[in-house]
Amino acid sequence: MSSSRTAIGLRGIRKTYGKTTALDGLELDVKEGEFFCLLGPSGAGKTTTLKTVAGLEQPDSGTVELDGKDMRGVEPYDRGVAMCFESYALYPHRSAYDNLASPLRSPRHRLPAADARDRIAAIAELLGIGGLLDRPVGQLSNGQRQRVALGRVLVRPARAFLLDEPLSHLDAKLRQQMRAELKAIGAVQNTTTLYVTHDSVEALALGDRIGVIRDGRIVQTGTREEIWYQPCDTEVARAFGRPRINLLPGAVAADGGFRSADGKVELPISAAASPGTEVLIGVRPRDLALGEGPGHELTGTVYVTEVLGRSVEVTVRLGEQHVSLVAPRADTAGLRPDDPVRLTVRPENLLLFEADRPERPGRRIGR
Amino acid sequence: MTGMTGLTVRKRLLGWLADLALILYFVFALFPIAWMVILSLKPANQLFSTYFSFTPTLGSYRTVLGDSEGIPFVRFFVNSLVVSVGAVVLSLVVGLPAAYASARWRFKGSENLMFTLLSFRFAPELTVIIPLFVLYQKLGLFDTYVGMIWVLQLVTLPLIVWIMRSYFADLTPELEQAALLDGYTRKQAFFKVALPLVKPGIAAVSLLAFIFAWNNFVFPLILTSNEAQTVTVGALSFLGGDRPKYNLTAAAALVSVVPPLLLALTIQRYLVRGLSFGAVKS
Amino acid sequence: MGWRLTLRPYVLIVPALLLTCGILYPFGLGLYYTLFDFSASKPQPDMVRLHNYETVFTQDAFWNSAWVTVLYAVGAAAVETVLGVAVALLLHRSSIVGRVLEKILILPLMIAPVIAAIMWKLMLQPSVGVINHLLKPFGLGGVQWTDTPTGALLSSIAVDVWVYTPFVAILALAGLRSLPASPFEAAAVDGAGWWYTFRRLTLPMLWPYVLVAVIFRFMDSLKVFDIIYALTEGGPGDSTVVLQIRAYLEAIRFQRYSFGISYTIVLWAVVYLAAMVLVRHLGRIQRKAAEAK
């Protein structure tokens, strides 16, 4: 479904507001028909990126390309993109119906009133707001408003959808349901979508590809597997997965293996790093197994256990470090604090990073 | 209610005292208006012989509105209406785009313009009027509507620009951005989205500007003589002459305060922002 | 796009800019006139440089006017502030009486000041005015309100207070209504008394609102004209000749245009300086209030 043509291309975008730099040479390629998730913390430049694509913000330098055409000087209404704002940006003086109808009444996307009515009814049905259409926007809950805002985007044909945290104000259950349904909506399947979120679960669930943005730059782009198994640095590794990835500080020993800072943990590593290099070794909680098994073995004592539904998060003290792991509930029965435990980890699940530095997080240097 | 404690008795007593203090203030605030009503209804022969008991008559109003005594008060009233409405309309046409621009874009000169306008609010009027007095006589604008509407911009323009800027600034620009992406032009986004949302603000500030223009005294005093003179100057002229005509003065004063008072009561909710130039919002 | 984008806001403010220049032009012209000895009797004036200002500053009349102006402005602003805040506090209790009266609070403020002065002039008339009539039972009849220097100044201030107290009250009331409830609830739980709550909570948090009102009132009363023109015309003698009245007399009555404008320029400078000091002070107090919150 995703061809190799670039639908949205950002080339070296810089944007500053006074002294703060919002976008710092941002590069981005979204393929035609792709569902691309842009993930990052607040203030990373996600919204500015969307607004730059839409033509609502003018970059200080760099170019925006849509379908290969330079968009310099093209007004937002001529770019043919639709955007869902995080603040909803619904017209407060109009009803939900009129908000949904707004694009279909505009000079550029006008539909005959009857067709517009059918289209709106269909989209409202999909989003579960069919019964609210007559209400003024002011009488809707935040979750309802957010769905109206999303509907205003989906009712119209567009070259690309730009969605800024479109599910953030829904309650947990509805969010999960909408997340599942969103990609199934015909309009979304057929349209290039650039989806902004700060929620890594959402990004992993939705994105054909994911771009991780930090301080106005894209630090890594890839499929969910690439991002998960080959994070470019410790920050990206920390951003995905709950509980968070375990990162043990240590250094490369004389024999080329890893030795933790307190000397209590030793692991062989595959990467070539000169002895003495300060490193972090990363292992995801779900890749640590309790008890005997294939792979490297570690021993420690139970620090605390916490039940997460059917599985249990166990925090284990390894020397002076704590690591967490997630194990099936059955395997953890009878574990008490200070019980000695054995852990195993497969060598291919070990990630090796440079140590974090004040100016940047540690880069991954090996599996 | 039996068993009231000493505390609640004291509280009630204090409440009554507070109400009494309020009533005292409002007697001070309202008595002059009431007294004007009384004076205006007195027949001339009972003007100085009685205070509160008299035979009411509408004669003073008839005299004032009948243009007797050589004072064309109806014309002054129409003049006030024309120059005040004219000044507000001109300020709106010119001021709304400026208010919108300075609320939406940071650009060179915008703050300078805004502060120059604000300084008009505090400038002594005579600094501008005396040169205008000389200038208008050269240009033939003395005692004309055009001259009055021009000089009243000193009152209405800063008010309208500053307050409308605060209304536009309260409106998130994302609403107009959404309209742009819905396929509307910037002009359409302004007229279909921004303008309807600040309409209550426009109505309120226009009425307030009208009131201030209407109430102005020093401009018409110096820059008009007869043709374009307004009610504020007109009302004062009933006090002139050999015999003070208190009843006529009171009637003229009351007639001239009716429009601003009626308008003021309709815009109560918006007054705070208007009076403080947008500094305080309610 | 580039040039259109940067130009758009300028296109929108051009009309306002032109109109502003239309107002600035006479101001500049006035400034220029003050360098001459332009008057009705001398339509072909000569350049006198700063002579007009020298005359202004060496005249007793100027210093008298300046003194009267300051007395008037300080007196009016002070009384209006105290009275206005008091009225706001009383209305904030929102008793039935208060809710009714609040609706008519603005009436005096919407009456043209000159009309207000006319109203009071009629009431303060010594022989037939209603005020002296009402005071007679208290043995106070026959007060020469506007006919004595002190009485005239106090009467003018009273009219100013009558017109503008609602202004302070409205802003203070808006401030009171926007104060957060939680500190007051906490104080009530702690059993703090009324006076303590007022001194330590209400007043500091309300102060920025009151100060906005005070600044507006002080600056406005420095350039008072209407009220005094209608009530006393500056008399008796020179006792209520504030600066704008003096400027009016010089420029319009005696038709010494250049000299009259010099007065207004000096007043303008004073108002401007006062504004700068007050605005800076306002910034400081608002920061303090923000920290207190």
TrEMBL record, chain A:
Alphabetical keyword list: ATP-binding, Cell membrane, Membrane, Nucleotide-binding, Translocase, Transport
SUPFAM superfamilies found in the cross-reference section: MOP-like, P-loop containing nucleoside triphosphate hydrolases
Gene Ontology MF terms in the entry: ATP binding
Pfam assignment, any one: ABC_tran
Xref: InterPro entries: AAA+_ATPase, ABC_transporter-like_ATP-bd, ABC_transpr_MalK/UgpC-like, Mo/tungstate-bd_C_term_dom, NA-bd_OB-fold, P-loop_NTPase, Transp-assoc_OB_typ2
ABC transporter domain: residues covered: 8-240
Transmembrane segments: none
Keyword ATP-binding included in the entry's annotation: yes
SMART domains to which the protein is assigned, alphabetical: AAA (SM00382)
Protein name: ABC transporter ATP-binding protein
Species of provenance: Streptomyces coacervatus
TrEMBL record, chain B:
Listed CDD domains: TM_PBP2
InterPro entries given in the database record: BP-dep_ABC_trans_perm, MetI-like, MetI-like_sf
Stretches of the chain forming a coiled coil according to its record: none
Keywords: Cell membrane, Membrane, Transmembrane, Transmembrane helix, Transport
Compartment annotation: Cell membrane
SUPFAM superfamilies xref list: MetI-like
Pfam families: BPD_transp_1
KW Transmembrane helix (keyword) present: yes
Membrane-topology descriptor: Multi-pass membrane protein
Regions that span the bilayer: 20-41, 76-101, 113-136, 148-168, 189-214, 246-267
Domain ABC transmembrane type-1: 77-267
Family listed: Belongs to the binding-protein-dependent transport system permease family.
PANTHER family: INNER MEMBRANE ABC TRANSPORTER PERMEASE PROTEIN YCJP, MALTOSE TRANSPORT SYSTEM PERMEASE-RELATED
Protein name: Carbohydrate ABC transporter permease
Organism expressing this protein natively: Streptomyces coacervatus
Automatic annotation (TrEMBL), chain C:
Gene3D superfamilies: MetI-like (1.10.3720.10)
Domain of life: Bacteria
Major localization listed first in the record, in broad terms: membrane
InterPro entries documented for this protein: MetI-like (IPR000515), MetI-like_sf (IPR035906)
Cleaved signal peptide residues: none
ABC transmembrane type-1 domain segment(s): 66-278
Regions crossing the membrane: 12-35, 70-92, 104-123, 161-180, 201-219, 257-279
Entry membrane topology: Multi-pass membrane protein
Alphabetically ordered keywords of this record: Cell membrane, Membrane, Transmembrane, Transmembrane helix, Transport
UniProt subcellular location: Cell membrane
CDD domains found in the cross-reference section: TM_PBP2 (cd06261)
Family classification: Belongs to the binding-protein-dependent transport system permease family.
Protein name from the UniProt record: Sugar ABC transporter permease
Species in which this protein is naturally found: Streptomyces coacervatus
Lineage, opening ranks: Bacteria, Bacillati, Actinomycetota, Actinomycetes, Kitasatosporales
